[in-house]
Amino acid sequence: MIINDKCILLIDDEETIQEVVQVGIEIEVGWQVLIASSGLEGIAVAQTQQPDAILLDVMMPELDGISTLSELKANPKTQSIPVIFLTAKVQAAEKNQLPGLGVAGVITKPFNSMNLASRIASILQWKI
């Protein structure tokens, strides 16, 4: 296992996804994974913990991913944290629109949890 000091915040309302992402990233590269189950919780965690990057589900109840992203980008404490959308429901046209919203990238579900950290590192140009 590669020990690395990165911290990733996952904002996703599905417990299964939370577990798969956390275990996959921790096994693959040893990054810390913070979990938030809603957009509002994710915004609060991002402000206090200042993660290196955020994985953000698009489809969530209450505050969806796009609204959550808007809040993150509007806040001076969180606006510079790179955000990667994690989404199951993405049409080709939507996928082309998402980068225009200020996201670093898009990873579609289902994904291989054992190479998720590599995909994140590739999008953000991190060395692992």
UniProtKB/TrEMBL annotation:
Residue numbers bearing the 4-aspartylphosphate modification: 57
A Pfam family matched in the record: Response_reg
Signal peptide: none
SMART domains recorded: REC
SUPFAM superfamilies on file: CheY-like (SSF52172)
CDD domains given in the database record: REC_RR468-like
Keyword Glycoprotein applies: no
Record-level GO BP terms: phosphorelay signal transduction system
InterPro entries: Bact_response_regulator, CheY-like_superfamily, Sig_transdc_resp-reg_receiver
Keywords associated with the record: Phosphoprotein
Domain of life according to the entry: Bacteria
The Response regulatory domain, residue ranges: 7-124
This protein's record includes keyword Transcription regulation: no
PANTHER family membership: CHEY SUBFAMILY, STRESS RESPONSE REGULATOR PROTEIN 1
Name assigned to this protein: Response regulator receiver protein
